[in-house]
C-alpha cells in the first residue's frame, strides 16, 4: 500500500470540516435544523391542544413530509438547470417568511388546526426546495475521497440538531408557549442565508444551452429508470420509511396521552432519539468496515422494528427514552446508508434530479405512512398501530433479497474523457429530430452469447443518457453481424449524450467493443428527420474507444 503524501492528509470522518465553506455551511445548517426541530415540537404539541383526534396530530407529520413528495423532483430539476446558490437563497428566504408569519399569527391567537397544517406545509415547501440542491452541492464542496465523510457529517449534524432542538423546544414551549418557538425557527434561518450570500461557487462552463424544464424532467426520469442501484435504493426506502413513519407520527400521542408527559418530556423523548442518532453517526464508519450496506440496513431495520414494538407496549417513560436511543441509532444507520447509495448512483449532470427522486420516494412513504398510521390509531388505538408497524417493518427487511445496495461496488460516475462530436458535412440544427443512431458490430459466432449479455448493459447506458428507445438486431443474411439502434428526441439531445458519458459507461462500452472483430471500430451512423423527412447523415465518432480492448470481466 502506497503511503499517503504529506501534502494530502488521509481522509477521516472529520476531514471535510477542514474545508472552510463546508464547515461554515455545516454549522449554519445545524443551527437551522435546531429551529426546524423546535417547530416540529411546537406544532405537534400545539395540535394536541387544538384537536383531540389522533388523525389530526398525525397530519402534522404528513403536512411536513407531503411537500417533499410533491415538490422535491421539480426542485431537483431547477437545481440542475439554474444557479444552485441563488436558488438556495430563494428557498431560505421562503422559509424565513413562512416561519415568521406563523409566529405572528400565534401571537395574535389566530392559529387553528387548518392554519397550523397550512403553515407547516408552507415551511416544508421551502425545505423541499432546499434539499435537492443542498445534497447536490456536497460533491462541489469537498474532494471526492471525502464525500462519504461529508455525507456522514451532514447526517451527524441533522441528529445533533435532533438532540438539541426538541429538548430546547420543549423548554421554550413550557416557558413561553408556541409563538416563541415559531419565531426562533425564523431566526435560525439567518445563518444559512449569511453563508450562502458570502459563498461564491465556481462558475460552471457549459458548451450546450441549458435544458428546459419539462425535457429535463423526462431526462431525469429516464436516468432513474435505467439506474439499477438508484432503483434499489428507492425500493429499500419505501420498505423502511412506510413503516418507520409510525413511530414519528404517533410519538406525540404516546407522550401526552399514554405517558402523561408535558412538552418538556416530549422534547426529552425526541432528544433521546437524537442522542442515539449521534452515537450511530460516530460508530457508522467502523460499522461500514465490518458490515456490507445490505447487512447494516437489515440489522438496523430489525432494531428499529423492535424499538417500535416496545413503544407500543411499554409505558415507563425512562424505559421508553432508552428504547428511543436505539431507534435513533437504527434510523441514522439506514438513512445515511441509503443517502450514500443515492449519491453514489447519481451522475453529476443529473445529480439534483436523481437525489430529488429519492427524496420524493422517501417523503412520499413518510407522508402515506403518517396518514395511514394516524387513521389506524383512530380506529384500533395507538399501541395496536405501533405493533402492526413493527411487524410490517420486520417483514419488509426481506426486500434485501430482491434489491441489493452492494451491487456494482466499482461504480464510477465521474465524467468520461469526451468522445468528440460526430464529423458531419452538414451539421443538423439543434432542434432537428428525432435522431436514429445505429452502431454496426461484427462478432465471432462463439462470442455471440457474451456479446448479447454485454450489449444489454449498453442499453442502460443509452437510456440513462437520454435515448427514448433502444434495440439490438442480428442480420439474418450475415452471421455475427449486429446493429444496435437507439432514438433520441433531437440533435441537441444527442449532443448532450456525449457530455453525459461517465467512466462507468465507458467501461461498459469497452466490454462491448472488445467483442467486435471487424477491420475497424464499430461504425456509427446518424439518421436525422427534420420536418418529418428522414435523411442519412453518416458519421463516425473519431474518439470512440479504439478497436478491440480486453474485456473487463
Termini gap? 24 Å
Structural class: mainly alpha
Spatial ordering of strands, largest sheet: 2-3-1-4-5
Care to count the β-strands? 5
List keywords for this structure.
553 residues, disordered N terminus, disordered C terminus, mainly alpha, five-stranded antiparallel sheet, 6% strand, 5 strands, elongated
What's this, in brief?
With 553 residues, the chain is mainly α. It has helices spanning 20-50, 54-81, 84-107, 113-141, 147-176, 178-188, 190-198, 213-225, 228-258, 263-290, 293-313, 317-344, 351-380, 382-396, 448-465, 491-500, 503-513; strands at 435-442, 469-474, 481-488, 523-528, 535-538. It has 17 helices and five strands.
Task: Give a written overview of the molecule.
With 553 residues, the protein is mainly α. Helix 1 (20-50) runs antiparallel to helix 6, helix 9 (228-258) runs antiparallel to helix 10 and helix 10 packs across helix 12 (317-344). The chain has 17 helices and five strands. Residues 1-6 and 532-553 have low confidence and may be disordered.
How are the secondary structure elements laid out?
Layout: H1 20-50, H2 54-81, H3 84-107, H4 113-141, H5 147-176, H6 178-188, H7 190-198, H8 213-225, H9 228-258, H10 263-290, H11 293-313, H12 317-344, H13 351-380, H14 382-396, E1 435-442, H15 448-465, E2 469-474, E3 481-488, H16 491-500, H17 503-513, E4 523-528, E5 535-538
Antiparallel strand pairs: 1-3, 1-4, 2-3, 4-5
Helix pairs in contact: 1-2, 1-4, 1-5, 1-6, 1-7, 2-4, 2-8, 2-9, 2-13, 3-4, 3-6, 3-7, 4-13, 5-6, 5-10, 5-12, 9-10, 9-11, 9-12, 9-13, 9-14, 10-12, 11-12, 11-14, 13-14, 15-17
Amino acid at each position: 500500500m502506497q503511503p499517503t503524501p504529506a501534502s494530502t492528509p488521509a481522509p477521516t470522518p472529520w476531514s471535510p470540516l477542514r474545508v472552510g465553506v463546508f464547515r461554515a455551511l455545516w454549522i449554519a445548517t445545524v443551527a437551522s435544523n435546531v429551529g426546524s426541530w423546535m417547530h416540529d415540537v411546537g406544532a405537534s404539541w400545539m395540535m394536541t391542544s387544538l384537536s383531540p383526534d389522533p388523525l389530526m396530530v398525525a397530519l402534522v407529520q404528513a403536512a411536513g413530509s407531503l411537500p417533499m413528495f410533491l415538490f422535491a423532483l421539480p426542485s431537483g430539476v431547477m437545481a440542475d438547470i439554474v444557479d444552485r446558490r441563488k436558488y438556495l437563497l430563494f428557498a431560505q428566504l421562503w422559509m424565513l417568511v413562512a416561519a415568521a408569519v406563523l409566529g405572528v399569527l400565534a401571537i395574535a391567537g389566530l392559529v387553528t388546526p387548518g392554519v397550523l397544517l397550512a403553515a407547516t406545509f408552507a415551511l416544508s415547501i421551502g425545505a423541499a426546495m432546499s434539499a435537492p440542491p443542498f445534497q447536490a452541492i456536497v460533491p462541489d464542496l469537498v474532494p471526492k475521497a471525502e464525500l462519504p465523510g461529508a455525507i456522514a457529517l451532514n447526517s451527524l449534524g441533522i441528529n445533533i440538531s435532533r438532540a438539541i432542538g426538541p429538548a430546547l423546544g420543549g423548554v421554550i414551549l413550557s416557558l413561553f408557549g408556541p409563538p416563541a418557538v415559531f419565531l426562533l425557527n425564523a431566526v435560525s434561518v439567518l445563518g444559512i442565508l449569511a453563508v450562502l450570500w458570502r459563498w461564491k461557487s465556481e462558475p460552471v462552463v457549459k458548451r450546450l444551452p441549458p435544458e428546459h424544464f419539462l425535457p429535463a424532467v423526462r431526462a431525469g426520469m429516464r436516468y432513474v429508470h435505467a439506474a439499477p442501484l438508484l432503483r434499489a435504493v428507492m425500493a429499500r426506502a419505501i420498505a423502511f420509511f412506510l413503516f418507520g413513519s409510525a413511530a414519528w407520527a404517533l410519538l406525540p400521542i404516546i407522550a401526552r396521552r399514554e405517558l402523561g408527559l408535558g412538552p418538556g418530556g416530549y422534547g426529552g423523548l425526541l432528544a433521546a432519539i437524537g442522542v442515539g442518532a449521534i452515537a450511530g453517526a460516530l460508530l457508522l464508519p467502523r460499522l461500514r468496515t465490518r458490515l456490507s450496506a445490505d447487512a447494516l440496513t437489515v440489522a438496523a431495520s430489525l432494531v428499529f422494528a423492535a424499538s417500535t414494538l416496545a413503544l407500543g407496549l411499554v409505558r415507563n417513560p425512562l424505559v421508553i427514552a432508552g428504547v428511543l436511543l436505539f431507534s435513533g441509532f437504527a434510523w441514522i444507520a439506514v438513512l445515511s446508508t441509503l443517502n450514500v447509495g443515492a449519491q453514489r448512483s447519481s451522475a453529476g449532470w443529473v445529480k439534483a434530479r436523481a437525489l430529488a427522486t429519492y427524496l420524493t420516494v422517501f417523503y412520499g412513504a413518510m407522508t402515506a405512512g403518517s396518514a395511514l398510521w394516524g387513521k389506524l390509531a383512530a380506529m384500533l388505538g395507538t399501541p395496536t398501530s405501533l405493533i402492526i408497524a413493527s411487524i410490517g417493518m420486520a417483514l419488509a427487511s426481506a426486500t434485501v433479497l430482491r434489491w441489493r445496495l452492494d451491487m456494482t461496488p466499482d461504480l464510477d460516475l465521474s465524467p468520461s474523457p469526451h468522445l468528440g462530436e460526430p464529423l458531419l458535412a452538414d451539421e443538423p440544427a439543434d432542434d432537428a429530430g428525432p435522431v436514429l443512431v445505429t452502431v454496426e458490430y461484427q462478432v465471432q459466432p462463439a462470442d455471440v452469447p457474451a456479446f448479447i449479455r454485454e450489449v444489454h448493459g449498453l442499453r442502460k447506458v443509452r437510456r440513462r443518457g437520454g435515448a427514448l428507445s433502444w434495440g439490438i438486431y442480428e442480420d439474418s443474411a450475415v452471421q455475427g453481424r449486429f446493429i444496435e439502434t437507439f432514438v433520441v428526441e433531437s440533435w441537441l439531445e444527442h449532443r448532450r449524450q456525449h457530455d453525459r458519458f461517465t467512466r462507468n459507461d465507458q467501461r461498459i462500452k469497452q466490454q462491448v467493443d472488445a467483442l467486435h472483430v471487424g477491420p475497424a471500430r464499430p461504425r456509427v451512423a446518424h439518421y436525422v428527420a427534420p420536418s418529418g423527412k428522414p435523411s442519412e447523415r453518416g458519421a463516425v465518432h473519431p474518439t470512440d474507444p479504439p478497436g478491440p480492448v480486453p474485456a473487463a470481466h
